[in-house]
Design goal:
By secondary structure, the protein is an alpha+beta fold. The chain is built from two helices and seven strands. It has one domain: Nucleoside Triphosphate Pyrophosphohydrolase (Alpha-Beta Complex), CATH 3.90.79. Strands 1, 2, 3, 4, 5, 6 and 7 form a seven-stranded mixed beta sheet that branches. The longest helix is centred in the middle third of the chain and has 13 residues. The radius of gyration is 14 Å and the shape is globular.
Amino acid sequence: MKKKHLNIVCAIVRDGDKILCTQRLRKGPDYIAEHWEFPGGKVKKGENDYEALRRELHEELDWNIYVGAKLGSVKHEYPDFTVSLTAYDCMARDNDFKLLAHIDSCWLTPEELPELNWTAADAALIKQLW
């Protein structure tokens, strides 16, 4: 049986030399629940990546961002589904966001990123980008 495939977009938001990291809710399979990720989400039918990323960050963080250049993309196969995860360089006017769909957030330097328990797709993206 063919696994469901999801196109996911994520934001690499920087504040100086630090990058925004968000922790997923305690729901979903164990291999992604409570793991860390870059904020973002699924691209819906009829949306382009930019529209999806702006929508997701507004829904999940009540935050308006500017979506810039594509930074990289990885494919990952989880036990129940596969993902194509694409990262975009993003900017915000301020860091005044709300955690509406995450349990925690932090700002880390690229060197500190491996300290967190990332989803497998995000971990692969980190290796590619840094």
